[in-house]
Amino acid sequence: MIAHPDSTGMEWKRLRSMSEEVCMAVYTVLDRKAVNRLVKDYGLGRLSTVQGISAGSVNTHYGLESTKGKFILRIDEVKDTSDAQREIDFLLFLRKHGFPCPRPVVDKNGSYLQEYEKKAVSIYRHRAGKDFSAATLTTDHIEKIGQALARLHLIGQEYDTPIRNRFAFDRVRSIYQNLRGRIAVHLKHIGHVLDDEIAHQEEYREEKLPKGMIHGDLFPDNVLFRGGRVVGVLDFEAACFGKLIADLATAVNAMCYYEERYHIGRFNALLDGYQSERTLSLAEWDAFPNELRFSAFRFTLTRLRDFFFRHMDEKRRVNKDYREFFHRLRILRRERSGGMDQMLLTMATGYDYRKYQKIHAEEKGVNA
Questions:
Q1: What's 104's DSSP letter?
Q2: Alpha helices (H) in 97-233, listed in sequence order
Q3: Tell me, what's the pLDDT at 354?
């Protein structure tokens, strides 16, 4: 889907049609006048192409190419302007501390946000790099992702303007309560599992754990590599103040599971990378199994809400199957095999093992 700024009305009409037919994650179609205005206001130079991006599922994205380089235009479909600004403020803080996150572009009036059809619009510099699917990630990739996540957590603990967590337990419970009746009618075979899981989380969740700013949605397609290094961590739409171990649990569910099971080599690589920067506390190790379950539960529910029960033209969205995370949840609940036993063993010994290694290293230093 390519358009030139001097396109005729007929060509622009064809662009809109192609947006609807091809770009599955383009929910809001920009008109020519809006694109020209944004290009001018953000000082992007002479624009050559506009292309809808099919990746992603929540917001609308366009790729822009101009004489000033490549850019990503984002239209927030969920957040209002104030929430979108909070996300940008956090990105600016991370960039100030050298973290490789998206770079927002400021317009001629010094603002990072504009509006289109009452939705927040922002523009970011394109970041070159390659992402990998869960199937093609190597343990070296995963270890480096663990390091990057820990660095994000360490930097984020210094951020003094926390963003509310849209996926804290109370909010996820509210999502569940709103969906429960529909689940009971359409998905009776999974309803009892979800009922039991919410009761389990009510009783066993632990809130007194290290907190700070977290990414909230660290999946493989949100990490860019170049030359074996992490050069970009993308999509901070879910970034918020929350439990650090919860963020790590989501990364485990995203990076360490494929072909319907968890892989202990990947899990160890992620934890080794993470703990090379930040050591987990005993309380976090204890809470780890339950945080994995809560993460799987959360994504099961949000995918049910956003995709299974949300009526929308199938040609205009990316469909994400709730069953992918429901399968994870059943493994984490030990209702089916899939690598959970090995992870539990690592969690049970992880803290003591690393504590022993530290004492052993100190003893060697004294005796040297």
A1: B
A2: 139-156, 169-186, 188-204
A3: 55
b/e per residue, 18-54, with b = 16+ CB within 10 A?
bbeeebbbbbbbbebebbeebbeebebeebeebbbbe
Please answer whether residues 231 and 100 qualify as being in contact, where contact means their C-beta atoms are separated by less than 8 angstroms.
Answer: yes
Q: How many degrees, rounded to 5, is the angle at CA 74 between CA 72 and CA 75?
A: 160
Report the C-alpha gap between 353 and 145 in whole angstroms.
22
Q: How far is CA 191 from CA 176, 177, 317, in A?
A: 11, 12, 26
- Give the position of tokens 């989380």: 201
The answer to whether the beta carbons of residues 96 and 128 sit under 8 Å apart is no
Q: Which residues lie below 8 Å from residue 13, measured CB to CB, with a gap of 6+?
A: none
pTM summary value: 0.87
CB 52 within 8 A of CB 2: no
Who contacts 361 (Cβ-Cβ below 8 Å, separation ≥6)? Answer: none
Q: Which domains does the chain have, with CATH numbers?
A: 9-125 (3.30.200.20), 139-367 (3.90.1200.10)
* pLDDT at residue number 47: 92
Predicted pLDDT at 32: 83
Instruction: Give me the residues of the chain with pLDDT under 50, please.
Output: 1-24, 356, 359-360
Q: Are the CB atoms for 157 and 94 separated by under 8 Å? A: no
* Measured distance CA(351)–CA(120) in Å, rounded: 44
Query: What Cα–Cα distance (Å) separates residue 288 from each residue in 108, 114, 135, 312, 351?
Result: 47, 40, 24, 36, 12
The DSSP secondary-structure symbol of 315 reads G
Q: What is the pLDDT of residues 218-276, one digit of tens each?
A: 999 999 999 999 999 999 999 999 999 999 999 999 999 999 999 999 999 999 999 99
Q: Indicate the Cα dihedral angle 250, 317, 306, 165, nearest 10°.
A: 50
Q: Which residue has the tokens 């037919």?
A: 21
Q: How many CB atoms lie within 10 A of CB 359?
A: 10
